[in-house]
Amino acid sequence: MSDLLLHSAKPDKDGCVLSVTPQSAKWHYVGFDVYHLVEGATLTQNSGSNEVCLVILSGRANIAVNGQDFGTLGERASVFEGLPWSVYAPCESEYQVKAVTALQIAICKAPAKTQLQPRVIAPTEIGQETRGQGTNTRYVRNILPDTSPYAEALLVVEVITPGGNWSSYPPHKHDTDNYPAETYLEETYYHRLNPPRGFGFQRVYTEDGSLDETMAIGDGDVVLVPKGFHPVSAPHGFDLYYLNVMAGPKKAWKFTMSKDHAHIGWTSTSAR
């Protein structure tokens, strides 16, 4: 199995089913965890040197940061039903998550030095856009885009790709620290499928061929993108969701398109 592909496991004693650290990924910036909590379970953690974005994947939770209670959040039964509720927690803060119902929650992390204000990111605050056209159409939900003033380093986005369509396409890369032409950003793709028994594909490759891996992705898998181009495809009959986490030395999303695919173009229409 590819070192870039991670499968979800059964919940451990704390409810963790997935964990990516800079050490395990052999990179510097992005951390990513997923927890499945039973109703009534509580998760308490300290962010340490990382800022954190808690994204409720499904279910409802009571979330507090540094004793500030944000109340009960969450309203969707799956990632395919509506927009997410999220909470931002700065570095050196303690956050507590109590599952009001069965809960699936993602914890997105990146190193930060500034103690920004904890805050709720409500569905009404999420920028939506339709990207691509034809069988290249997908629907983007910007939780923490690079233009957001509410995070120092984290970029967090959800994408829904209808069955039969391509996503993160035309292929693009962001592995060179050459602002403003391109920025170095590590990236994780957390994949879900509807129906969950299907599969999708993701290729991660460099122009020089030093990295070239094509992976069959299942429901709950994570793909690591340390460098290179990284297109995704959703087979007919299976809608594909992914949650992206990106971070690097500069909070800006500047990428280079594959020269072999540049004739396709990159189209985007904002919904709000």
Walk me through the structure.
With about 270 residues, this protein is mainly beta. It has one helix and 24 strands. Strand 12 (about 125-130) and strand 13 (about 140-145) form a beta hairpin. The mean pLDDT is about 95.
Number of folding domains? 1
Helix count, per DSSP? 1
And the CATH topology? Jelly Rolls
What is the architecture at the second tier of CATH? Sandwich
For the biggest β-sheet, the strand order reads 1-20-17-22-14-13-12-24
What Rg do the Cα atoms give?
18 Å
CATH class: Mainly Beta
Order of helices and strands: EEHEEEEEEEEEEEEEEEEEEEEEE
Q: How much strand content do the residues show?
A: over 45%
Distance between the termini: 41 Å
The CATH superfamily is known as Jelly Rolls
Coarse structural class: mainly beta
Shape label = globular
Total strand segments: 24
Oligomer: single chain
Mean pLDDT: 96
A few lines on this structure:
The protein has 272 residues and is mostly beta strands. Helix content is 1%, strand content 46%. The strands form 5 sheets. Strands 1-20-17-22-14-13-12-24 form an 8-stranded antiparallel β-sheet, with no helix packed on it. A 6-stranded antiparallel β-sheet has the order 2-3-10-5-8-11. Strands 4-9-6-7 form a 4-stranded antiparallel β-sheet, with no helix packed on it.
